[in-house]
Amino acid sequence: ESDTASEISFQFNRHKKTPSIGSHSSDMASVSSVSGSVLSVYSGDFGSVDAQGTVEFALDYDEKNREFQVHVSQCKDLAVVDEKKGRSDPYVKTYLLPDKARMGKRKTSVKKRTVNPVYNEVLRYKIEKMVLLIQKLNLSVWHNDPLGRNSFLGEIEIDLASWDWSNRKLNWYPLKPRSLSAVTGVDHRGVMSLSIKYVPPGSLGKWPNNPPSGEVHIWVKDVKDLLQLRPSGVDSFVKCYVLPDTSKKSYQKTRVIKRDTNPVFNHTIVYDGFHTEDLKDACVELTVWDHEKLTNHFLGGIRLGLGTGLSYGISVDWMDSTQEEVAFWQEMMLAANEWIEGLLPLRSL
Predict the structure, then answer these.
(1) Which H helix or E strand runs over 192?
(2) pTM of the predicted structure, to 2 decimals
(3) Most buried residue among 3, 88, 257, 285 by CB atoms closer than 10 A?
(4) Tens digit of each residue's pLDDT (9 = 90 or more) over 53-77
């Protein structure tokens, strides 16, 4: 069934007052930073203002410094957010798509009490030209509220693959309503095909207490439609932890599949040391990464558990499984010794 089988002894420490949610992996540290960035994409947007007006900007790529530059000049005739006071406090924000999290947001200063703000600011991204050419630029205008209830004023998206890079002049563009993907919070990162199985202690017979402790088997089959970070594709691998344990004993990974946005891993991992009652407090975290020499880039992941927000009575942010992930885990708990097949969307964690 698989090309690699790893058996890991797994023990929970129920006596700890706080779970071990820090990681010994530098990659895992970037998961939290990715999460914060992705959340900010959809933060605010409390306003019900119709998009109107125009924005003037220019695009350039500095070959010497390997830097993408967005020259934001000004906006005209923006919507009025506070009708009583007849004011808007606008600023401009940019992302590179499809992965908003990877490069992060850039934004201008806030101009107060105006629907015709003048910025004359440059937003910069350190990025290779060939990577930039498979991105889209999302530029949006927002009203800044002191309480954080920011209102969306309009946006524009530009496909950088078809952009005329000889055009460095400032041009005017009409602001458009929010796209459906932004409104619904869709952040497509691919889909993972996998199977899981729980083997309770002593359930296999033949020998006394075989197995002596419970086992969770995870069969990572393949992933479809990964984010393509380079023209040649993506060099991906999958990491696995059983939280709350983030030690080396819990950590497993697949081999790297090169230049493929639809990698087939066919990799099985077995964790033992489980008791049946542990299943309600544990969480299997599977994350997909793009492998590069200097640093690995987070592409997406899933968390299999009950999604209660609690682990052994302690509140933890990683017990956040979606409805699909919870249903998949519950089916495994109810069907001992049976492989449960699933197809789950990757998400930001």
Answers:
(1) strand 191-199
(2) 0.54
(3) 88
(4) 999 999 999 999 999 999 999 999 9
